[in-house]
Amino acid sequence: MAGFIGSWFIALVYMINRGYGRTLLTPHGMVFHTFFSRRSLPWGEVTRVERRGHVARSSEWWDIRVVRVSGRALPVPGAFTSHRYDRDFDRKLALIENYLKHATER
User: Fold this and answer.
1) pTM of the entire structure?
2) Alpha-carbon distance 19 to 62, whole Å?
3) CA 70 to CA 45: how far, in whole Å?
4) How do the pLDDT tens digits run along the chain, 106 residues long?
């Protein structure tokens, strides 16, 4: 029982951290703000932006991830949805892609 409660609590903290986190886009890079951390990622370390879908037993959701030069994909805080067609989510994805495009043109 304790293992179940521990797993549930970790999943809850993860979702709150992701959902209420924010990302600041600047001409120099992205700044991720979550409850537990603050991370800066220069555009030069980003190779692409991805929309990733996830399926669980009774639900599905999508999030935005940026893939670094090293190949590691980082989730973008505050950018996920449980709706297949979500204009707000698509707008966020297009905005991040636009920032990346302009940063790599320099």
Assistant:
1) 0.82
2) 12
3) 8
4) 778 888 888 878 877 777 778 999 999 999 999 888 899 999 999 999 999 988 888 888 899 999 999 999 999 998 888 888 899 999 999 999 999 999 988 6
DSSP-derived secondary structure for 42-91: EGGGEEEEEEEEEE-SS-EEEEEEEEETTS-EEEEEEEEESSSS-HHHHH
Number of H helices, E strands in the chain: 2, 6
**Tokens matching residue 95:** 């905005």
Kindly tell me the sign of the dihedral angle through the C-alpha atoms of 36, 41, 47, 49.
positive
Cα separation, 54 vs 49, whole angstroms = 16
Instruction: Report how far apart, in Å, the C-alpha atoms of 84 and of each of 15, 60, 95 are.
Output: 18, 9, 18
Bridge partner residues of 24 (DSSP): 31
